[in-house]
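Dear colleagues,

I hope this message finds you well. In preparation for our joint manuscript, I am sending the E3 ubiquitin/ISG15 ligase TRIM25-like (Clupea harengus) sequence together with its predicted structure, so that both groups work from identical material. I would be grateful if you could confirm receipt.
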Amino acid sequence: MAEAAPNNHELFTCSICLDLLRDPVTTNCGHSYCMGCITSCWDQEDQKGVYSCPQCRQTFIPRPVLSKNNIFAELVEQIKKTRIQAAAPVPCTAGPGDVECDVCTGTKRKAVKSCLECLVSYCETHYKVHNDIHPGRKHKVVDATGQLQERICTQHEKPLEIFCRTDQSCVCLLCLVDEHKGHDTVSASAGRREKQTHLGQTQSKIQQRIQEREKELKELKKAVETLKSSAQTAVQDSVRIFTEMIRSIERRRSEVKELIRDQEKAEVSQADRLLKQLEQEIAELKRRDAELEQLSHTEDHIHFLKVTVDDGLLVHRMFEGTDLC
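The corresponding structure tokens are as follows:
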């Protein structure tokens, strides 16, 4: 699988930046992205609190914790190596950012060493020639550097080999005879060790501060997540409570409506009986006395009662635990 995978480059391409995966991570839905790309994408969704996959749009709550996909990372490195080998120029030819050989004519080759005495940088071939020319004299040689002049004393044009503690500067051997005579000096390597020790102490303090800040950051993020979770729970609880209250009010409204209708039927039925009695009595009276005026009929009007509850009073009673039903 590892040998065949580099041919399927599209499988290892981030759909966000459209480049080979860098620090690949895989979401719960199975899609892979660069750690930086998906982190940046989800950072923009922090306000919503809902995180989605850019490809399939599956959502996640809360924000998933992403871990590096080591298998994908190894396969991507194989792809990179294959590309580098396929596109690599002539190994000895100097490229952008490389130190060029000072001896080569025409096409410059990449320098591998720099001589602090000759003040010349050499490619591998010319470095062998340099060693052949000076077989009995060992020159001070370092890895190829484009900053040779910074390693040479500007006054005596000799290699800087001594560190002056008094002046906190690098000097050559001849400087010890002149302006740095009697100063507290050590070799450059010893000065480096001293500075390295101090640098290590400073680095330890910085790393300790980083750990403290990362701990504070982790605690703050945890507090934010807890706050978001509590807020979400509060919203869900309030929705549930208000839903139950609305249902209760609807039931009470239906009960009151039914009660009113029943009362209406009873009263209308009683009124109908009275009407019939009155009609019979009126008919009898008409037969007895034609001069009586016709009686007026009075209709009973039933008004519908509507219970109106102030929302603010409901919320207040809700938190007091008052049973509104």
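For the figure legend, we might mention the following. The chain is about 45% helix and 10% strand. The first strand starts at residue 24 and ends at 26.

With kind regards,
E.M.
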